[in-house]
Amino acid sequence: MATRARDIVLTALAPAMWGTTYLVTTEFLPPDRPMLTALLRALPAGLLLMLFARRLPRGEWWWKAGVIGTLNIAAFFALLFLAAYRLPGGVAAVAAAVGPLATAGATILILNQNVRLRTWLLGLAGVAGVSLVVLTAEARLDTIGVIAGIGGAVSMATSTVLTKRWGLPRGAGPAALAGWQLTAGGLLLLPVAFLFEGGLPAFTGANVAGYVYLGLVNTALGYWLWFRGIGRLSVVPLSFLGLFAPLTAAFVGWLVLGETFTVWQTAGFVVALAATVAAQLQVKLRRPRPAEPAPRPELVRI
Question: Which of 64, 116, 147, 268 sits a CA distance of 20 to 30 A from 253?
Answer without folding.
Answer: 147
